[in-house]
Amino acid sequence: MLLFFTLITIIIDLFYLFVSLKAVLKNRYSILHLCSILFFIIQVLPLVVDMFNDVNSLGTHTKYLYNALTDENTAYLYNLFAIFVMVGLTSTAQKFAHKRVNIMFQRTKAINSFYRLCIVLLMFAPVAAVILAPTPEIYTNFSYFYTHSYNPLAVEYLYHRLVMPYIIYLSFLSILVYYYLIKGSTSKNIIMLLSSVICIWIDGKRGLLAFLIVGILLVDFIKNQTQSNWKLVKKGALLSCVFIAYFAVYSMFTTKNTDDSFYETYDAYFSRESEVKLSIYSRLNGADMLPYDGATLLYDITCYIPRFLWEDKPYGFFNYLTAYAYNGHAETFMEGSNFQVNIWSEYIANFGLLGCILSLLFIIGIVRVSERSNVAMLNISGSVFVLIYLFFGFELIVMVLFYAWLYFFVFKRKSSLHRTRTTY
After folding, report:
1. What is the C-alpha separation between 183 and 137, in angstroms, rounded?
2. What 3-state DSSP class applies to 142?
3. Where are the domains of the chain?
4. Number of H helices and number of E strands within the chain?
5. Among 188, 206, 247, 315, whose Cα sits 20 to 30 Å from the Cα of 212?
6. Distant-in-sequence, close-in-space partners of 110: CB < 8 Å, separation ≥ 6
7. How far apart are CA 416 and CA 74, in angstroms?
8. Which residues span the membrane (predicted)?
């Protein structure tokens, strides 16, 4: 019976996937159509992959994750969740697309030489951060802290963990702004490519490349208001292949995940099914994942309040979910280990069924405000934020994007940019 219901879920969601793909290819789309496509890839496609692999292998070292993946009640509720969100995203996207407003931003002429120079300097800010680092030479090694032993209390590691991420993500945002504002040419593309490579090298992880790819494609979609999106789809496929190749080379170089099977690697990095099921399982069995409902969402909106001013402030959601996967409670966090989370797993863990509804409304609200705005950076930051939040937790890069969106929403909405309506 469960297998039959899973097949029905996949078929229903496939229909809505095709609706979203058709809207994108015909250039009558909302960002919610892209959310729908991404949701299918990371939440529904894993149901297909599960059919050809042994789910038991995913919970070898995590008892409660194993319980969640093998619990039938959890599986049924997950299928209902997959249908509800896919229908909600796509149906709302169709309504937004019919009222879609094209925004013709005057990019290059509005930016003088001084601001262009500032943007370029910010793109290369990580170079200055390396020069000022306690031990600059460690950054001549790719992914140093993942390929060498180190003292977690050493000043080099603390600098890399507490200072460097902010510089890298400032550079990341500057790269997207530069890509949007400046018309393409060989020299400008080289500048952008060079700054991106430097950021990825210094960051030493895989996620930043994924963020850049999502951001670049979104900027392309926003700028490409009147032409067919087939070229962008091809570009997206090419960049996805680049990321997969980088992922494989990175894993070999750092020896991360080299002992894992394909299924384990896929579940950890390209799927969020397990995490959402774990959140559902927690709500069905005592809701012991969090200290109280809404705890991690409270952390999300107060993340910049120093802990010494609020000793009982909650922690980021991934800490609780990881601890629950191992122990069935979150009283002791797992140092050096963390599961990847996203908006669905976090909201469901906090509020159950209500969390599923609230998360959907939150995404729809952000997209609606962003798409109706004539402020370019509000549109871009909101679009990148919701897509990355579908795949990653409310951690540093997602926080930065959200507060950037909030800044543009509060202070820049009244900017006078040229706006025209599309005729269909």
Report:
1. 35
2. coil
3. 2-104+272-282+339-411, 113-224+227-260
4. 21, 2
5. 315
6. none
7. 50
8. 6-24, 31-49, 75-93, 114-133, 163-181, 193-217, 237-253, 347-367, 387-411
In what helix (H) or strand (E) does residue 186 lie, and over which residues does it extend?
A: helix 186-203
CA distance linking residue 355 with residue 363, whole number of Å = 12
Contacts of 100 (CB under 8 A, 6+ apart): 28, 29, 30, 371, 422
* 373-411 pLDDT tens trace: 878 788 888 988 999 999 989 987 888 889 889 988 987
- Within a 13 Å sphere around the CA of 67, how many CA atoms are in the beta-carbon half? 15
Q: Render pLDDT for 297-314 as a digit per residue (tens, 0 to 9).
A: 999 999 888 888 898 899
The position carrying tokens 């629950």 is 324
The two structure tokens encoding residue 361: 């409304």
Tokens of 89: 């995203």
- Structure letter (DSSP) for residue 41: I
312-327 pLDDT, tens digit per residue, is: 899 999 999 999 999 9
Tell me, yes or no, if the pTM score tops 0.85: no
Nearest 5 degrees, angle CA 201-CA 207-CA 211? 100
Continuous segment of H or E residues that includes residue 421: strand 419-421
* Residue 287 pLDDT: 82
Residue 230 structure tokens: 């087939």
> What per-residue confidence (pLDDT) applies to 93?
95
Averaged over 94-123, what is the pLDDT? Answer: 66
Q: Give the torsion sign (CA, 383, 387, 388, 390).
A: positive
Q: Where are the alpha helices (DSSP H) in 308-390?
A: 317-327, 343-351, 353-372, 376-389
